[in-house]
Amino acid sequence: MAxxxxxxxxxxxxxxxxxxxxxxxxxxxxxxxxxxxxxxxxCGKSTLLHVIAGxxxxxxxxxxxxxxxxxxxxxxxxxxxxxxxxxxxxxxMNVEDNIGYALKLAKVPKTERRERIGRVAEVTGLQSVLExxxxxxxxxxxxxVAIARAIxxxxxxxxxxxxxxxxxxxLRHDMRRELAELHQRIGxxxxxxxxxxxxxxxxxxxxxxxxNGRIEQFGTPDEVYHAPESTFVAGFIGSPPMNLIxxxxxxxxxxxxxGTVLSECGWNGHVVLGIRPESVRVDRQGxxxxxxxxxxxxxxxxxxxxxxxxxxxxxxxxxLGSSAExxxxxxxxxxxxxxHWFDSESGKVIPxxxxxxxx
Amino acid sequence: MLALILMFFYIPVFLAFFWSFFxxxxxxxxxxxxxxxxxxxxxxxxxxxxxxxxxxxxMVLAPGTAIGVSLVLALAADRGIRLSHPARNIIIWPKAxxxxxxxxxxxxxxxxxxxxxxxxxxxxxxxxxxxxxGTDAYxxxxxxxxxxxxxxxxxxxxxxLQSIPDSLAKAxxxxxxxxxxxxxxxxxxxxxxxxxxxxxxEFVGSVVEAFGLIxxxxxxxxxxxxxxxxxxxxxxxxxxxxxxGAATQTALLMTAVAIMVALQFRLEKRVKYER
Lengths: 359, 275
Fold this sequence. Notes:
The complex is a heterodimer.
Chain A: E1 7-16, E2 19-29, E3 34-38, H1 45-53, E4 60-65, E5 68-69, E6 80-83, H2 95-105, H3 110-124, H4 139-151, E7 157-161, H5 169-186, E8 189-194, H6 197-203, E9 206-211, E10 214-219, H7 221-226, H8 231-236, E11 243-250, E12 253-255, E13 261-264, E14 269-275, E15 281-282, E16 288-297, E17 301-307, E18 313-319, E19 329-333, E20 340-343
Parallel strand pairs in A: 3-8, 3-9, 6-7, 7-8
Antiparallel strand pairs in A: 1-2, 1-4, 4-5, 9-10, 11-12, 11-14, 12-13, 14-20, 15-19, 16-17, 16-19, 17-18
Helix pairs in contact in A: 2-3, 2-4, 3-4
Chain B: H1 2-19, E1 22-24, E2 31-33, H2 37-43, H3 46-79, H4 84-92, H5 99-109, H6 118-123, H7 134-162, H8 166-174, H9 179-190, H10 192-208, H11 210-217, H12 229-239, H13 243-271
Antiparallel strand pairs in B: 1-2
């Protein structure tokens, strides 16, 4: 078991010239937890990871590993290990030397080195390929070597920079499970960067959603999915993501621009209504009429793309078997308990407590 | 293209070997087959062996130094140290200068009375004089050859360094390797193809290009100290009209170079890897 190390980030900023990649970000990653940093490409998530690793220097702010201040230390003194997106295996070394390079640099005696390499190779299923060069391995094997190389030193902090993005769908699925099991076993504080929300939802203890270098939400997968704190999170998580409908609260009702009433509403003025596609109930006597534009049949369920009365798009998922013809009309209900309300200016959630309809 | 290669490369090579078995008359008018007599004559000539030794020494020292210096410069430029950007351009410019011009410039720079070392000669009279001292002349030739080779090697090595994925250096840094360890363990091994290319080219260049430098700087002197084989062939063939002797020495020189290049290729196969 690795030493328990929590990562504390305080007001961290990173600028590239005049471009601010991370702006004054603060968060605490729990010891031994698996934290996923999730965001679209270019949001600063990889930069954040590289700053934690020491591969980039912070422009301002502090980073602590437990109570040790590390932001000014070079990468090799921080005691983290990292798995890279393109694996970054040394092409001129065989698998054994790739895994053992860090131990060799740390002057671990040869017999102990071999023993530790052997143990890690067993955990990652690489015993039979230790003599091969990286170019003779499959994508999945290379990924395992990269992970083996990271865990062989028994690091206190393990960093992953989109490690599965070069793998095919099936392999990605297998590696997710393997990595989750491995994390259970070694228990190092892990930080995993990805733009793939399925990876985030399935593996994370906590998800840090960021966009434009700022935190949008930091919570468990459940919280992020069921209680998004902003329209960004709502529109980013879920496949398909939450529907976000612009309208106006007027006399206790939520109205579209053309006056159609969708549901009850606790306050007045412009608001954004959020509802997950799977929360929309198809019902012949439903209160809301939708015009079907397209229906994707996926086997287990269907995704219907439709239009509201004022032309705003929305999507809903229906159980197996039920589908709808394009340009036909269906009626649906919006269950009041499944609704999320957001401020149309700031995009922030309007807390449920203040929602008069619920509780 | 093929015709040109045939005309200017394969036919001369063939003729050199062909003539080495004949005794040519200096002013034309027939030749006589003499078998290995030319070889016997050349190989028993002390001058030939001295020139061969100077050539071999030059073939090791000039490429070694030129590549060593280029490698240091390329590593520095790749790390992006201060002023590396303007330096990158400036280092490449000398490539545009002809060998003969370099020779003239270096003759002036190394002039014992006017050049760079003139102040040194004032302090220790007679310390530096390439016109009299054979070692000095050889060194001067070496410096000119090295200087001539740096721009091209620098470009090749720098582009090789920059084609190594950034993430490898980062991975090595995470594994605990400092900058020097990364150079020795990661960058230089991955630079092998480029190092090999520059070495073969420098190697052949040290035989061929040196001619222009010798001709303008020392004309083989003093006392034959800078008479490399390629210059000796020229003097024997075109000044002394010993055409058969020159052809024989050419054949021997080509064989020596071919053997050494072949050895280098064998070595390269051993260190080869796939990215």
